[in-house]
Amino acid sequence: MFVGFLSMFLLTAVDVGSSEKVCTYQDVLNHLNLTKNNELYYMTRPVKDYKQPTKVSLDVLLYAILDVRETDQTFIPYVWVFMSWVNQHISWTPSEFCGINMVSLPSDVLWKPDLTIEEMTEKDKAPPCPLLTIRSNGEVYVQDDQVLVSTCRMHVYKFPFDTQSCTLSFKSVIHTVQEIQLFYNASSSEATEESREVMRTQYEWLFINMTVANKTVDTFGLKQDVIIYTINMKRRPILYIVNFLLPVLFFLCLDLASFLISDSGGEKLSYKVTVLLAVTVLQLILNDILPSSSNRIPLIAVYCIGVFALMMLSLLETILVMYLMEKDNAPQDDQTDKDHKQSEACEDKRDKNNCEGDREWRKCLRVCDTSADETPTELLKVSSSHMMEESRTIQKLSDDLRETLNTLTLLLNSRQGERKTGYWTRKTKTINTVFFIFYVSASSLFLLCMFFHWNGAH
Predict the structure, then answer these.
(1) If pLDDT is split at 50, 70 and 90, which confidence band does 443 have?
(2) Which of 107, 146, 173, 190 has the fewest other C-beta atoms within 10 Å?
(3) How, if at all, do strands 102-106 and 163-172 pair?
(4) Could you give the CA distance from residue 47 to residue 37 in angstroms, rounded to a whole number?
(5) 3-class SS letters over the chain
(6) From CA 302, how far away is CA 300, in angstroms rounded?
């Protein structure tokens, strides 16, 4: 009985050992005769009838937005490209090879579709995938990661509140639609959701969505299938608001505050010139950011030009006011010099008159001395003292009249100068008041227009 049980166990073990077949991927390749030297697999399009087109499935996911260069109008994304097609020369039964239904091979062993991206301007910087996968039903599956440097038409009219749309157009280089037909599996919404899940970085942009479309185009008389992926993204404007828009607005406020500075000195003029030069520096920085091939002037350039024009008008108004005040002060100085000259002339004339009076008095004394023998001594003394008193009284009266005349002349001239100076001063004050009202109104209206344009422009 024990011998029978042992014999039965040995027979069962032999049957189980014989059923466990060992298989390798090389068995599959040997079955297919798939080697690097077999031209059947990599030389020509893998169809048994050349009239049958090769249907290529293409799906793209956006992994990262690396850079967007406005000046060069280039878009640099990192994408995952998934391609699959059927090679009619490949097929095997998985049950014959221990259930093997998938084999990975070097990518240069099999034929691959010659797909290219029309917008690409530089060679792919990412290393190509070294392997591809084949299935038992002949389906070939390839996943390739690519860093693309592609052209993208930038619309910077609303910069930095702009939204950009960059396209990636996949098509065959030489094959027509009768030879290669392109289609996609994932819809636009599916591609968008999957891209959001795998995305790692977006640079300064916010990914909105990705749309996909398939169309047939006529290229030099050849009809070809094209799959177009459109990537829509919006710029994050906070950095440009803090570093550019607000400083320009602050400079405008500083220029507005310059109306509190007196126009009598040169500090106000130098202050306005300094603020104007600061806005000029910001404009030079903006010139390095925006592309020169834009069809329309960007709103941010209009914003800077408008602020610059308002500040320039303020500077010109300050120059005009200072010119009028200088013109107002110049005649007063001339009149003062003239008054000094008249005063000096009057002093000279008075000294001359005093000298003439002294000469007359001495002459009278000489006459009296010559006739002293003919008149009594008492009469001569009385008449002499009387004449001296009258002469002194007349001299004093004459001096008082001259001083009064000089005082009235100086007072009249000073009032005329004050009246002339006050006229231009009042005019400049009126000009400052009117221009301040105009400046505030124009600045407010300009800023409101810029705000509505940025919100409503397309």
Answers:
(1) very high
(2) 173
(3) unpaired
(4) 19
(5) CHHHHHHHHHHHHHHHHHHCCCCCHHHHHHHHCCCCCCHHHHCCCCCCCCCCCEEEEEEEEEEEEEEEECCCCEEEEEEEEEEEEECCCCCCCHHHHCCCCEEEEECCCCCCCCEEECCECCCCCCCCCCEEEEECCCEEEEEEEEECCEECCCCCCCCCCCEEEEEEEEEECCCCCCCEEEECCCCHHHHHHHHHHHCCECCCEEEEEEEEEEEEEEECCEEEEEEEEEEEEEECCHHHHHHHHHHHHHHHHHHHHHHHCCCCCCHHHHHHHHHHHHHHHHHHHHHHHCCCCCCCCCHHHHHHHHHHHHHHHHHHHHHHHHHHHHHHHHHHHHHHHHHHHHHHHHHHHHHHHHHHHHHHHHHHHHHHHHCCCCCCHHHHHHHHHHHHHHHHHHHHHHHHHHHHHHHHHHHHHHHHHHHHHHHHHHHHHHHHHHHHHHHHHHHHHHHHHHHHHHHHCC
(6) 5
CB 249 within 8 A of CB 303: no
Give the C-alpha separation, 374 to 260, whole Å: 87
pTM of the model: 0.72
Q: Which amino acid is at 167?
A: T
Structure-token match 């299935």, residue found: 135
Residue 147 CB coordination number (10 Å)? 17
Average per-residue pLDDT for the chain = 81
Tokens read off for 297: 């002037």
Q: Which residues pair with 182 in a beta bridge?
A: 56
Show Cβ contacts of residue 260 under 8 Å, excluding neighbours closer than 6 positions. none
Render pLDDT for 7-51 as a digit per residue (tens, 0 to 9).
443 343 334 344 567 889 999 999 998 888 888 888 889 999 989
Rounded Cα distance, 250 and 283, in Å: 15
Cα-Cα-Cα-Cα dihedral of 445, 446, 450, 456, to 10°?
Answer: 40
* Alpha-carbon distance values, 74 to 218, 234, 236 (Å): 26, 15, 18
Contacts (Cβ under 8 Å, ≥6 apart) of 238: none
Torsion of CA 251, 256, 257, 259, to 10 degrees: 140
The answer to whether the beta carbons of residues 283 and 309 sit under 8 Å apart is no
Q: Which amino acid is at 344?
A: E
What tokens does 38 get?
Answer: 């077999």
Q: How confident is the model at residue 4 (pLDDT cuts 50, 70, 90)?
A: very low
Least confident of 122-131, 255-264, 324-333, 340-349: 340-349
Query: Per residue in 285-322, pLDDT tens?
Result: 888 888 776 678 889 999 999 999 999 999 999 998 88
